[in-house]
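Look over both lines before class:
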Amino acid sequence: MTIKSSIETFGKYCLFIKRVFTIPDRWAVFFKRTVLEITKLGVDSIPLVLIIAIFIGAVIAIQMQLNIMSPLIPAYSVGLATREIVLLEFSSSILGLILAGKVGSNIASEIGTMRVTEQIDALEIMGVNSSNFLVLPKIIAFLIFMPVLVIFCMVTSLFGGYLVAIFTDLFPASRYIYGIQTMFNEWYVWYALIKSLVFSFIITSVAAYFGYYVKGGALQVGKASTNAVVSSSILILLLDVVLTKLLLQ
């Protein structure tokens, strides 16, 4: 992709977002669709988040213990390091990358299918702002529920490390819990929640953009879904660096 085409794509994306963020024609329909999207995009993602988080938390705790086995390092350092990794990076950035694959591909394929089957054209003919009608409820719904997924991820990841302490003899559970509580910085939780809100907007809006402008048939819908996931992942990693510099300096 050349610089010229990248600028054109960004401009087209900005115009698309401008159309999305307009006042809904019917608020009752908007709220109803938002609730449905919360269930589809948010609630249905909880099992995936819990399963991944509990195993990642366990792996982080094991690796921390195996890499800091020294009499000079206190035993509670495992819990402290696990907590910091989970709060600072895993519960927001890595979770965002995971959800870009699940939620992003879902949105891109759904809207892309509506485009190639001319359902979006039918909405436009009826005088409906199709981008606002289809995309805004998805963005708002995921913005609302993403912090919930992040909190679930934090708690479950730390619990995964606790299970390692319970079922193995790598480190004592009491020291692990003490490490989680030691030198706790509340801002790290807010930092993760702020990043997750930015990432949720990127995931939904970018995926909707690629799906909305699909041209062709089923093959192009698949390509749009792939492009949406790749673009969202790159933007998440880029913004992760920027937000870390801004929020933790």
Residues 75 and 175 are 6 Å apart (CA to CA).
